[in-house]
Amino acid sequence: MTQATVLVAEDDKLIRTIFVEIVKGEGFDVVEADDGRRAFDLVTSRKIDMI
């Protein structure tokens, strides 16, 4: 079964890193964005299951 992909979008690097580690620890694939433009680009270019 394919893992769900979660987008973590947060401009604060420390907070983003914490969220990424938590989500990865729960077994999800994670992609990160440090701003809205990057988040939009990721959402429109690949399958994201949760933001």
Structural notes for this entry:
This protein has 51 residues and is α+β, with helices and mostly antiparallel strands. It has one domain (5-45). It contains two helices and two strands, in the order E-H-E-H. The longest helix is centred in the middle third of the chain and has 13 residues, at 13-25.
| Main sheet properties | 2 strands, parallel
Order of helices and strands: EHEH
| Structural class assignment | alpha+beta
Q: Determine the N-to-C terminus distance.
A: 20 Å
Task: Note the overall shape.
Answer: flat
Radius of gyration: 11 Å
Strand order of the largest sheet: 1-2
- Tell me, rounded to a whole number, the average pLDDT: 96
Number of strands: 2
Number of domains: 1
Q: Stretches where pLDDT falls below 50 for ≥5 residues?
A: none
Strand percentage? 15-25%
Distinct helical segment count: 2
Percent of residues in helices: 40-55%
Secondary structure elements and their pairing?
Blueprint: E1 5-9, H1 13-25, E2 29-33, H2 36-45
Parallel strand pairs: 1-2
Which key features would you list for this structure?
51 residues; alpha+beta; two-stranded parallel ribbon; 2 helices; 45% helix; flat
Question: What's a quick, concise take on this entry?
Answer:
The chain is α+β, with helices and mostly antiparallel strands. The chain is 45% helix and 20% strand. The protein has one domain (5-45).
